[in-house]
Amino acid sequence: MTVRSRTAGEQTGLTYNPDYNSGSVEGISRIQLNVRDGKRLNTWRAYLKPRLGDGNLTILTSTHARRLLIDDKQVTGVEVDFRGRVGTLSAHEVILTSGALASPELLMRSGIGPADELCEVDIDPVHDLPGVGKNLQDHWLSPVIFTTGSQPVPMGEVAPAEVHLFAKSDPDLPVPDTQPLFFSVPMYAQDSAPNVQSGPVNGFTLQGGLVRPASRGEVTLSGPNPQDPSLVNPNVLSEQADVDALVASVRQCREIGRAEALSRWQPTEIFPGPEVSDDELEDYVRGSVVTYHHQVGTCRMGQDETSVVDPSTFKVHGLEGLCIADASIMPQIPTGNTNAPTIMIAERAAAVLVGSPLEGITTP
């Protein structure tokens, strides 16, 4: 299926790109995966697990950070819920790595964020930073699903998705803004309520993908207490340019799915379905769009008045003893997946924080 998916793309006019990390992403490629010995090589396996037992590393599980402790613009530690007991951890420096949804939440619960919005949920502002929780960005998917005949669709060697492509939804764009992905299984949009999809288990999917969105969302709080849920408003497809790009990506996926190279599986399109013409795809895209789980940007680094983090030191503007080193500091979402860029941020932050050259802070 991996080879035939690539061939199908080439049959529709796409160029094969043997290495999309070479400096040019455009074209159809085999996906480069973080896999070693048949398992995903995540940051736990690569960085933390080899250091278990080191005297300078303590890992607390079942521990929830409730708020930062702040004394006159100096962060002095963290209040935590440790297995049902509330206590404090003191430190001269706190490094926040909770991600694009939880990092701004913890800041705002600590009184760091847009002062007016904090007052609205009965939190006393400690440090007014208007950019906290703003600038939320994500990658977005809309599936084109084909059911198949009696011949089973083979799985990839290591993952259900091993082929993707980067393409421009408009030829006048400077760089690709879409990333369709090929899955050897039907990926029904089950999170797209009220338009939840379902269907046969035999089939394959070409996911239309938007990777350079113009829309911006936000993370806010619903109340002052740790148990009050945060509110995530992605503002998905609020800009017409995003709708147009995702529609173009879905249209391209339909074309590839009908290519001769995939005909041996007797594909029949069930979503959007033959009754939906290419000119009617906007409603389908708006009703089937789901997250790629690549949220970034809510503690944006920069030097302007709405930025949150200093890009040279990783320190939160206006506070001492607090740094952020996760995907929340990205000013703009990268065109590709966010895992490797987030690891790069962490390695660079580690080098800055310990005063080491960057090449000295790498995976064991």
TrEMBL record:
<protein>
    <submittedName>
        <fullName>GMC oxidoreductase</fullName>
        <ecNumber>1.1.99.1</ecNumber>
    </submittedName>
</protein>
<keyword id="KW-0560">Oxidoreductase</keyword>
<dbReference type="Pfam" id="PF00732">
    <property type="entry name" value="GMC_oxred_N"/>
</dbReference>
<dbReference type="GO" id="GO:0050660">
    <property type="term" value="F:flavin adenine dinucleotide binding"/>
</dbReference>
<keyword id="KW-0285">Flavoprotein</keyword>
<dbReference type="InterPro" id="IPR036188">
    <property type="entry name" value="FAD/NAD-bd_sf"/>
</dbReference>
<dbReference type="InterPro" id="IPR000172">
    <property type="entry name" value="GMC_OxRdtase_N"/>
</dbReference>
<dbReference type="Pfam" id="PF05199">
    <property type="entry name" value="GMC_oxred_C"/>
</dbReference>
<dbReference type="GO" id="GO:0008812">
    <property type="term" value="F:choline dehydrogenase activity"/>
</dbReference>
<dbReference type="InterPro" id="IPR007867">
    <property type="entry name" value="GMC_OxRtase_C"/>
</dbReference>
<comment type="similarity">
    <text>Belongs to the GMC oxidoreductase family.</text>
</comment>
<keyword id="KW-0274">FAD</keyword>
<dbReference type="InterPro" id="IPR012132">
    <property type="entry name" value="GMC_OxRdtase"/>
</dbReference>
<feature type="domain" description="Glucose-methanol-choline oxidoreductase N-terminal">
    <location>
        <begin position="99"/>
        <end position="113"/>
    </location>
</feature>
